[in-house]
Amino acid sequence: MLDVVKPEILVVDDDPEVCETLVDLLESSGFRAQAVPDGLAMAARLDQRAFSLVIIDLRLKKEDGIELARQLRTHSRIPIIILTGQGTAADRVLGLETAVDDFVAKPFDNRELIARIRALLRRSAGTGMPRSLRADRLSHERYLFGDWTLNITARELLRSDGSPCDLTHGEFALLEVFVLHANRVIDREQLLLKTRSAQSDAVSRTIDVLVSRLRRKIEDDPDNPRFICTERGAGYRFAANVVRC
After folding, report:
1. What Gene Ontology terms describe what this protein does at the molecular function level (predicted)?
2. Which of 44, 56, 206, 238 has the highest local Cβ count within 10 Å?
């Protein structure tokens, strides 16, 4: 019988008690976990082995968790959760600009944190695997719009030349909703529910930030979008001819 490979999570926090608590919680919830105190140790550990998710404290003594997330995102699509004792809307918006996938306020509820981790891991399933290890691509759920192909099964967006467009988990979730509900007006509250339902303290501004970032990646002219249209006072509409292939 084959052993089940447990997802491994890296915790970045300079409070030893928080690290011990998180590692114990994660391991008792079916994960493997390690903890490091700073960005330097985080980078070294990530070079040594593949982790499934990283949890970073927002206010480290000598570093900014958002800055660490920004640095990590420049070369990795690994899911990132920020732990914050403040939990303000400004922090969340700033985090979204740097591709943080979720925020959890301290003190956190253990069950909520584990639920958010599992939700992120489900959404990221397959993105870090070699193509040879993924399921048969012929069975994948794909949608064409404009010069783009959205592969929902593999969770990737491809240009017409086959090159990938890197999306964060939030951006991908938003695009998936748009594509599956093309040419319908969707208000911000519905988009929040569909894309970040685990984040109970999310705000409407969160969606506006995600839309802005997604436009910069898929629109030829983000200031005059072809696909993601703003319906004033109502929300957004994905104005595209979407074809399943």
Report:
1. phosphorelay response regulator activity; transcription cis-regulatory region binding
2. 56
